[in-house]
Design goal:
The complex is a heterodimer. By secondary structure, chain A is mainly alpha-helical. Chain A has helices spanning about 1-30, 35-45, 50-60, 70-85, 95-130, 135-150, 155-165, 190-225, 230-235, 240-280, 285-295, 295-325, and strands at about 90, 95. Chain B starts with a helix and ends in a 6-residue tail after the last helix. The relative contact order of chain B is 0.15. Classes of the chains: A mainly alpha, B alpha+beta.
Chain lengths: ~325, ~375
């Protein structure tokens, strides 16, 4: 198994290289280079033309923008690996690495908690509806699942925003903390305060995940419930609950773990959509803003981070699966 | 293609079905199975409805779709009444009241009030403004309308006084055609790569599979956003449309390529492929005449199931303003009005295009699910 994990890690490393190359292409593709864009930005902000020219030249030399593309790519990668420097953002006047260090933890908090909640609730619902196949609750949750995978999540966010602001006068959903907690050390009150702010994102990003996990779990459990060993368990006279919880569920869970590789990008997408609409300071709005401003080092770096997160998620799911399910072939 | 498939399958069936004419063609079997599921019929109806609305948008809109009338800015949806009006007159059909506005003397806010002094009957198949059906045939027939002086905005109007219902119907043209074209490109790429990968096997398969995995590992939405933002603001509408469709195709072909490869792998060793090869058929002939028709039904199913994802992504990109831009119009772009919280707060009906998106996504999902069950008529249920 160690062999298998090492091989997966090597493949993941190559994938990461590929993703970084595509991200770099996004930085390079627009006409003109970073320096001309920076120059334009400075001129737009009222800097004198010669001054902007001089600043652009400095940036051009500093980032080696006059060198061949491959060399630029390598130095970009080297900067990330050696000192966590992702390039310069002119809109924030900071290195992109600092911006990422600020936003990544917040994004991860939302992504991971939405993911965990949706997995637990989705799997639970799947176990609940599978034995009630085509019954009232099964149909009820099937309709729910269909609706929450069909309504665009950014529009759910708009509607929720509308209701919260105009019906309940609750303006506190566009930040992470109330003012008094922003710099306070971590405590229960601070966590509760944070939850009061980020629950719409968790709810909306999570609901689609709940729906998907539920449908997969239901299908798996139905397959497993039809198998012979379950029949044997029933024939032994076990109670139906014991059969489902102790015998059928563990075998149906493997597919859920494998399925997380598909759910993860879906949840990430939801987080991006909702955070942009609500303006929560996570990576999503930063990414969108950078695309509009053409602050290209942010766009490229965040693309790389998103790719890396999904890659790591898939890797973890694969490894977990190989630990859980001894039938996985390591070839 | 479908004709050929029919021929293939009935050819195989001849051994099994002894009596002449007793077997049904696979197409008939597919139709029979499809018809049995209510959800897929509903889905097909929803999709068909949106397509009709989009194609004949001018017919369904009582006013010219792009007529700008700033006096009619942000009129709320008009309620349709039946029976007696405020004057006590009986109306045999549905009728509406006009909205008149009052300015709040302090805040200068516009308040729309129903003017119940005169009721306007809604007439059907009325003569109205001129337009061209499909851009070719001149016509002035509209599904519904009211007499001169009255208005009928079933979903309200936008900032420029355009009827949201007609506008949303028209927006379906871009939203639906772009997602369909994007999906068709992705299906072409995916099925060719899938068939080649499965048929040739060996190192070709290996390389193509690793490539597919790599593309599938990419986070779709961020890359779509980044690529869409690269389209220059100065590009003309047609270029934007084509490039957007290609961007969506770029990342959605992977599921299809994998499924088609799996199918082809299992078909490759069957007798009829072996027979074709023994008779000296070329690789191309085997692929396109014998293998491809057999995976076509799966291709259509996946095509149907890919469309909703593209519709959702397109609407989000356009909503952000990095997708379709004016003068083209899509459902997502219409929702851009709702981005401004103040506009949204006073005119909540600008959210109406969401209904169209949801109908489209649900419709294609239902249709795809129904087709999936029906696609393999010989499988035991």
């Amino acid at each position: 198994m160690a062999n298998y994990i090492i091989r997966r890690l090597i493949i993941a490393l190559f994938m990461l290289l590929g993703i970084s190359f595509v991200s770099f292409l996004v930085i390079k593709l627009p006409p003109g280079d970073f320096a001309t864009r920076y120059q334009q930005y400075l001129i737009d902000r009222g800097t004198a033309a010669e001054e902007a020219q001089r600043a652009a030249d400095i940036v051009r030399r500093q980032y080696g923008l006059d060198k061949p593309v491959i060399e630029q790519y390598l130095s970009w990668i080297w900067g990330i690996v050696s000192e966590g420097s992702f390039g310069y953002s002119f809109a924030y006047r900071k290195d992109v690495g600092e911006l990422i260090a600020d936003r990544l933890p917040k994004t991860l908090i939302i992504a991971i908690s939405a993911h965990l909640i949706s997995t637990v609730i989705g799997v639970g619902l799947g176990i609940f509806v599978a034995p009630r196949k085509y019954g009232f609750w099964d149909n009820f949750w099937a309709v729910f699942a269909f609706i929450f995978t069909s309504v665009p999540r950014f529009s759910i966010a708009i509607i929720l925003l509308f209701i919260l602001v105009f019906e309940f006068n609750q303006p506190s959903i566009v930040s992470f903390f109330s003012p008094q907690y922003v710099v306070a050390p971590w405590s229960w009150e601070r966590i509760v305060d944070m939850l009061r702010h980020i629950w719409p994102v968790l709810l909306i990003a999570g609901l689609g995940g709940v729906a998907r996990n539920m449908r997969v779990m239901r299908g798996n459990l139905l397959d497993v419930l039809g198998s012979q060993y379950v029949q044997t368990a029933r024939a032994k006279g076990l109670r139906e609950n014991t059969v489902i919880v102790k015998h059928a569920t563990p075998n149906a869970l493997h597919t859920i773990v494998a399925y997380q590789g598909t759910v993860l990008p879906y949840m990430m997408t939801g987080e991006i959509e909702v955070a942009i609409v609500l303006g929560l300071p996570t990576m999503g709005p930063l990414f969108y803003e950078s695309l509009v401003n053409q602050d290209i080092y942010i766009s490229g770096s965040l693309l790389l981070i998103y790719g890396a997160l999904i890659l790591i998620g898939n890797l973890l799911a694969d490894i977990l699966l190989s630990v859980l399910d001894p039938r996985i072939r390591y070839s | 293609m479908i004709e050929e498939r029919q021929f293939e399958d009935t050819g195989l069936e001849e051994d099994l079905v002894a009596e002449e004419g007793a077997g049904e063609s696979s197409l008939q079997l597919i139709w029979r199975r499809f018809r049995r599921s209510k959800a897929s019929i509903v889905g097909a109806a929803m999709v068909l409805m949106l397509v009709l609305l989009a194609v004949f948008a001018d017919f369904f809109s009582p006013t010219p779709i792009n007529q700008i009338d700033l006096n009619a800015s942000f009129i709320p949806p008009q309620r349709v009444y039946f029976g007696f009006d405020a004057q006590g007159n009986f109306h045999p059909g549905p009728f509406v009241y006009n909205y008149v506005y009052e300015l709040d003397p302090l805040t200068f806010q516009v308040h729309w009030q129903e003017d119940t002094s005169k009721a306007y009957d809604i007439h059907f198949f009325v003569q109205g403004s001129e337009y061209k059906i499909l851009g070719l045939i001149p016509s002035n027939l509209h599904l519904y309308g009211v007499e001169e002086g009255g208005t009928v905005y079933l979903l309200g109007t936008d900032k420029f006084g355009r009827d949201l219902f007609g506008k949303a119907a028209e927006a379906g043209r871009i939203s639906l055609s772009m997602s369909l074209i994007g999906t068709i490109i992705s299906v072409l790429v995916g099925s060719v790569l899938g068939v080649v990968s499965g048929y040739y096997g060996g190192w070709v398969d290996n390389v193509l599979q690793r490539f597919t995995e790599f593309v599938a590992a990419f986070p779709n939405l961020p890359l779509w956003m980044a690529l869409a933002a690269l389209i220059p603001k100065t590009a003309d509408s047609f270029t934007v449309f084509v490039v957007m469709a290609c961007i969506f195709a770029l990342l959605t072909w992977t599921t299809l390529a994998r499924e088609v490869r799996g199918k082809v792998l299992s078909l490759r060793e069957t007798d009829f492929i072996l027979a074709a090869r023994e008779m000296g058929a070329s690789d191309l002939r085997i692929i396109f005449k014998h293998l491809y028709p057999n995976v076509l039904s799966h291709v259509i199913v996946i095509l149907t199931l890919t469309v909703p994802g593209v519709i959702l992504a397109e609407s989000f990109l356009s909503f952000l303003g990095i997708g379709i831009t004016e003068p083209l119009i899509s459902w997502g772009l219409m929702l851009r009005n709702a981005q401004d919280i103040q506009t949204l707060g006073q005119n909540s009906w600008v959210l109406a295009p969401i209904i169209f998106i949801v109908i489209a996504v649900l419709g294609f999902n239902f249709l795809g699910d129904g087709l999936r069950d029906a696609a393999d008529p010989y499988a035991a249920k």
